[in-house]
């Protein structure tokens, strides 16, 4: 394997980081975290990183300790004279705050980008940003990978001739349309109206799903409200089955209960976020091999465009 590469993990992504390191062919770097009685914590590298290309793997889902731990690790690597520092953020938190959608709110995604650059990153590697334009918030290169690279082979298994792609809301129509074009199948869209965040008030279906095997695609599944309502609605409209492919398994609040009670056949997610509990309807696909291969190509200055299967 290439000399001069060190892979480290934050507390939130240790399992995934170990799998990426194994797939790459190196040992996961040694990091210890000192925690003070008031909750303050201090990560430290227990091996030299001087002159090395340091990859720090950490998804930044809540709590915000995960983001701050990443920032501290970047700062520690910079002060320890690492040659390059690459933040590998499989799930980029605060991505839903990509613009001012009402007065007097923060643009959280831009603030996170500013903090990461101030800490000293040289590059970002992430997957399925909630909003593509977040790439432009950084003044360093961003490698934006897509869950579709992993999902397409799985979706092909269900394509028996009556497949239809679907978006759970209008915002996901572009993603679902890309899948539909690539697979040469039809497209359906759910139109939803919200009264407030994480709560769907009304939903209707655009498109004919009768007798179809519906594949819903989205970048994340949070409370599963939209997803399960869409699945139930498709089944009411005569669909044979409804499966959902979501990259990031946020699965907060009543998500597991809603999935259990819904008519959704299966929810397929990746391990960018650790799935909190096992569930009969939830299946997890690993992104470890994909990230390991991209890291390898990056280190060897090889093209990674073959992995940019845009969805």
What would you say this structure looks like, in words?
The chain is α/β, with parallel strands linked by helices and 311 residues long. Helices cover 29% and strands 28% of the residues. The protein is built from 8 helices and 14 strands. 43% of the residues are buried.
Structural class: alpha/beta
Topology order in helix (H) and strand (E) letters: EHEEEHEHEEHEHEEEHEHEEH
Number of helices: 8
Q: What strand order characterises the main sheet?
A: 10-9-8-11-12-13-14
Please give the radius of gyration in angstroms. Answer: 20 Å
Based on Cα principal axes, name the global outline.
globular
Write down how many β-strands occur, each being a DSSP E stretch of 2 or more residues: 14
Q: Mind summarizing the main beta sheet?
A: 7 strands, mixed
Tell me the β content.
Answer: 25-35%
Rounded mean pLDDT score? 93
Identify the quaternary structure here: single chain
Ranges with pLDDT <50 over ≥5 residues?
Answer: none
Distance between the termini: 32 Å
Provide the helix percentage.
Answer: 25-40%
């Amino acid at each position: 394997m290439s000399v001069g590469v060190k892979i480290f993990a934050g507390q939130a992504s240790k399992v995934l980081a170990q799998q990426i390191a194994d797939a790459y062919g190196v040992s996961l770097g040694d990091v210890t975290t000192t925690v003070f009685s008031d909750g303050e914590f201090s990560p430290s590298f227990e091996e030299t990183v001087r002159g090395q290309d340091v990859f720090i793997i950490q998804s930044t889902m809540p709590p915000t300790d995960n983001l701050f731990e990443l920032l501290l690790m970047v700062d520690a690597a910079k002060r320890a004279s690492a040659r390059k520092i690459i933040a590998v953020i499989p799930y980029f938190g605060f991505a839903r705050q990509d613009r001012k959608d009402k007065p007097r709110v923060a643009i959280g995604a831009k603030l996170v980008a500013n903090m990461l650059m101030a800490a000293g990153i040289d590059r970002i590697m992430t997957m399925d940003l909630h909003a593509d334009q977040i790439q432009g918030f950084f003044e360093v290169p961003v490698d934006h990978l897509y869950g579709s690279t992993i999902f397409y082979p799985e979706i092909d298994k269900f394509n028996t001739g009556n497949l239809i792609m679907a978006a759970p809301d209008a915002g996901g129509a572009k993603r679902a349309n890309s899948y539909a074009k690539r697979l040469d199948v039809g497209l359906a869209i759910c139109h939803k109206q919200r009264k407030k965040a994480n709560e769907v008030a009304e939903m209707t279906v655009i498109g004919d799903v009768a007798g179809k095997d519906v594949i819903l695609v989205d970048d994340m599944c949070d409370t599963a409200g939209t997803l399960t309502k869409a699945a139930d609605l498709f089944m009411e409209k005569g669909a044979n089955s409804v499966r959902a492919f979501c990259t990031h398994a946020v699965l907060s609040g009543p998500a597991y209960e809603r999935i259990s009670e819904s008519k959704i056949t299966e929810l397929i997610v990746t391990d960018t976020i650790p799935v909190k509990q096992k569930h009969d309807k939830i299946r997890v696909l690993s992104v470890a091999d994909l990230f390991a291969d991209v890291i390898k190509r990056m280190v060897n200055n090889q093209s990674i465009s073959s992995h940019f299967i845009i969805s």
